[in-house]
Specification:
It is built from six helices and five strands; from the N terminus they run H-H-H-H-E-E-E-E-H-E-H. By secondary structure, the chain is an alpha+beta fold. A three-stranded mixed β-sheet has the order 4-3-5. Strands 1-2 form a two-stranded antiparallel sheet. Bound molecules: zinc ion.
């Protein structure tokens, strides 16, 4: 059952369909990120791009040190300040969010609609994080912020609790 090795840098044909779907979504997210940055005159440097990719790939919140680890599996780790700067950039571009309650970062699932307020539902039992957004929520918050004259950077609501899966589990 020897498989003909794919040429280096071209492995998508050998992947399973779900991996293919994910890598397709991944490519789409990256393209979207590039477009978003270009539109705002910002530059998605290789480091910023790698940090975004790592966050997107993990599909769960990662701390800055986890990121430094993921980005340097061969030991040549990025300096934390470099990771923090890249994260700051991604947050400003609406490509990532910081979850204060977990001191971790997560890629934005709807980077194209950065104006929408995002609420993260964080399960304290299994650690899953669900991202939800609502136009009504966004409008209400925008009104409140305007009344206070407050300029938001990262509009994130964190709601901790238990996901439906964990609620149904026997304790
Ligand atoms: Zn849960």
């Amino acid at each position: 059952m020897a498989r003909i090795p794919a040429p280096s840098g071209y492995s998508s044909k050998a992947e399973t369909s779900s991996e293919q779907a994910h890598s397709h979504a991944h490519a789409h997210a990256l393209a979207q990120a590039e477009t978003l940055c270009r539109a705002s005159g910002a530059r998605l440097t290789p480091i910023r791009r790698h940090v975004y990719e790592a966050l997107y790939e993990s599909q769960k919140p990662l701390g800055a040190y986890d990121l430094a680890e993921v980005l340097a599996p061969n030991g040549r780790r990025l300096a934390p300040i470099t990771v923090y700067r890249a994260l700051d950039f991604l947050i400003e571009q609406g490509l990532a969010h910081r979850l204060a309650s977990k001191n971790a970062y997560i890629a934005s699932a709807n980077a194209a609609e950065t104006q929408d307020t995002v609420a993260f539902l964080i399960c304290e039992s299994c650690g899953s994080v669900d991202e939800v957004s609502s136009q009504d929520l966004s409008n209400s918050l925008s009104t409140l912020l305007a009344q206070k004259g407050f300029r938001p950077k990262d509009k994130v609501l964190e709601i901790t609790g238990q996901c439906t899966h964990c609620q149904s589990g026997s304790h």
